[in-house]
Specification:
The protein has 294 residues and is an alpha/beta fold. The chain is built from twelve helices and eight strands. The protein has one domain: Aldolase class I (TIM Barrel), CATH 3.20.20. The protein has an eight-stranded parallel beta sheet with strand order 7-6-5-4-3-2-1-8.
């Protein structure tokens, strides 16, 4: 039985050994900590996991190892964004057969695709997936905005069920489900100023913050879904400094550097991305101290 993608979904870092390879042993420990904090699910090779910086073989090996370790305790969403449709198709098929509960598809590009090319890409990848397909809209990183009008067209694909939206246009969490007659739900794909959609109909929060503070992220989401607006607002204020820094400097850098600072190192990120240093590192260290980490 496939598990539903909902609640706080950890956008996991990809732990790295000193030689640049994936550190599977440390990744398992990292996921164990998130599961202990009652995380709702995990996404492999999303933006915080440096999708686009790993080979196809590394991704497939990682999914198999993680799925075996997690053993169905939480749902797994597999990021299968790739430069070519053919690679995304292969990753979709592999994910469907090796423990993923859903796939997350972001259109990576060098040549900016036309609308027709985007639609054809999603149609082809979705046809290869035996598990639900989530669209991933991250215009800041991918350079492509999956607009509501585009989503209305992509919603015609039978197994497209949701979208992680990192556009910053929070009303889309409401407009897209209405536009698609409830077929495509919208999960929050950013970490700052998300109280309103969390209190509303958003079924999931895909967050890199949960790498550092999973329990606090779960507490915020739980308060919001319980209708405790005051409690959720207070927790949102606590999370804000860290989330704002992640937005400004890149959550992948903040997550890797922050985990190192709090004594839970995961190495990396993979070059050419670098961890924080100098004034930026000191700003993060000060925020973590104020947050409550020693």
């Amino acid at each position: 039985m496939l598990k539903k993608i909902e609640g706080v979904v950890l956008f996991s870092v990809t732990p790295i050994n000193g030689d640049g390879s994936i550190d599977h042993a440390r990744w398992k420990l990292h996921l164990d900590a998130a599961i202990a904090a009652d995380i709702g699910g995990v996404t492999l090779f999303g933006s915080t996991g440096a999708n686009g910086y790993f080979t196809e073989a590394e991704k497939t090996e990682a999914l198999e190892a993680v799925a075996k370790h997690v053993g169905g305790k939480i749902p797994i969403m597999m990021g299968i964004g790739a430069m070519t449709t053919a690679e995304s198709v292969r990753l979709a098929r592999h994910a469907s057969e090796n423990g993923a509960d859903a796939v997350l598809v972001v259109p990576l590009n060098y040549w900016r695709p036309t609308d027709r090319e985007i639609i054809r890409h999603y149609e082809t990848v979705a046809a290869a997936s035996a598990v639900p397909v989530w669209l991933y809209n991250n215009p800041g990183l991918a350079g492509i905005d999956l607009t509501p009008s585009m989503i209305a067209k992509l919603a015609r694909i039978p197994n497209v069920v949701g979208m992680k939206d990192s556009s910053g246009d929070l009303p889309r969490a409401l407009t897209i489900p209405v536009l698609t007659k409830g077929k495509v739900v919208v999960g929050i794909g950013q970490d700052t100023l998300i109280l309103e959609p969390a209190l509303g109909i958003a079924p999931a929060w895909f967050t890199g913050l949960a790498n550092i503070c999973p329990a606090e992220c779960v507490a915020f989401w739980s308060a919001a879904k319980a209708g405790d607006a005051a409690g959720a607002a207070e927790l949102a204020r606590k999370l804000f400094e860290l989330s704002e820094l992640g937005s400004r400097l890149g959550i992948i850098r903040v997550a890797h550097s922050g985990l190192e600072m709090i004594g839970k190192p995961v190495g990396g990120p993979r070059a050419p991305i670098l961890g924080l240093e100098g004034a930026e590192a000191e700003e993060l260290r000060a925020i973590l101290t104020r947050f409550g980490f020693a």
